[in-house]
Amino acid sequence: MEKAGIKFSNHVFNGIILTSILAAANSSMYLTTRTLFSLSVEKKFFKPFKKVTENGNPIYCLLVGAVIVTFTISISYFGDERVYEWLVAFSGTAGLISWIGILFSHHRFRKAYIYQGFYLDDLPFKSKLFPFGNYFSFFCLTFIVLSQGYTTGIFRNFTAVGFIKAYFGVMLFLILYLSYKLYFKTKIVGLSEMDLLTDSYNQLGFVSERFEKTSFKEKLLSFIF
C-alpha cells in the first residue's frame, strides 16, 4: 500500500488489527460469561455464579471473564511468547471443537424433532442444506483439528513439545469429557427422551411460523434471511 502512495497504510492496518483484537475480546467475554452462568444454573459450577444484577447480568461470571480476557491479552505484551502461542493454539482448537459439538447437537435435534411428531415447518428457522451442510462442515472442521500437527511441522521433524502444542486442546477435551461421563455416569440422551418443549418458542407464546407467514413477500423474506 505504501508503494501505491498510501502513506498512512500502517495506521490502517493497526486499526484493523486493533478492531479484530477488541472484537475477539468482546466475544470471549460474552461466551465465558454465559457459559459459566449456564453451568451454575445447571448445578455444574459454583452456586454464587448464578447471581445476577437487576438488569439480568451475571456479575460474578462477567468479572471472571474480564480477568481471564485481560490476563490472556496481557501475556502477548508482557509475558513469554511461547505461552501466548500455546494459548492461541488451545483457544483455536476449543473453538473448532465447539462448532463440531454444535453441528452434532443440531443434527440430533432435527432427528428428535421429527421423531417426536413435530413439524419442521413450525420452526422459525430451518437449515436449507441439512443434512449435507452438517456432514460437510463436520468433515472440514474435524480435518482441520486433526491436521493441525502438519502445520507445526511435527510430521517432518517430530518433537514431543510440538505434538502436545498441536493437540493439547483435543487431549484436554477428551480428558474432561470422558471424566465427566465416567464420574456422573451419564449417557447420550435418546431421541424420545429429549425435552423439546421446556422454554420452547411455542410454550413462551410465540405464533407458529407455519401459520404466521402467509403472503408471498413474507415467505420470500423468510427464505432469504
TrEMBL record:
A Pfam cross-reference name: AA_permease
GO molecular function: amino acid transmembrane transporter activity
Record keywords: Amino-acid transport, Membrane, Transmembrane, Transmembrane helix, Transport
GO CC annotation terms, alphabetical: membrane
InterPro entries the UniProt entry points to: AA-permease/SLC12A_dom (IPR004841), APC_YAT (IPR050524)
KW Transmembrane (keyword) present: yes
Membrane spanning residue stretches: 12-37, 58-78, 84-104, 132-151, 157-178
Topology within the bilayer: Multi-pass membrane protein
Compartment list: Membrane
Domain (Amino acid permease/ SLC12A): residue spans on this chain: 2-188
PANTHER family: AMINO ACID PERMEASE, GENERAL AMINO-ACID PERMEASE GAP1
Protein name: Lysine-specific permease
Organism: Smittium culicis
